[in-house]
Specification:
globular; mainly alpha; Serine Threonine Protein Phosphatase 5, Tetratricopeptide repeat; 44% helix; single chain
Length: 143
Amino acid sequence: MYEYEGIVNMLLGRAGVNPGIIDVHGKRPLWFPAQYGHEGLVRILLEREDVNPDTADEDGETPLSEAAQSVHEMVVRILLKRDDVNLDRANIFGLTLFSRAVRFGREGIVRVLLGWNGSIPTQLTKLAGQRSLGLRDMGMRGL
């Protein structure tokens, strides 16, 4: 078993280590453990004040959107507990976290998002006020 948490804690304890550094694609260190479902690393990084969990990369993706796309429900739940993540942020293709989860058949993620603190994503609320919802309305444009 790899001991990523110990390594990350050791590195974060060193002077000059910046957990907010950006790579060439606009991704920050939190993006990778979110993408690969490393809950412990996500928790460690979120404990720091210098880590912004809602920073988007060059495609408009955030650690939350990547965790959802990669179907890491626990990481999604961890990130949703934060007040500083935007559930309605769209990526450069105009897809929100919710519409993307629906479009790509991420049923567990849709359930998490619909059940989160009793709230419903703004996108769905706006559509529901206009007409009955079909799959095409929730991002399934190819149907």
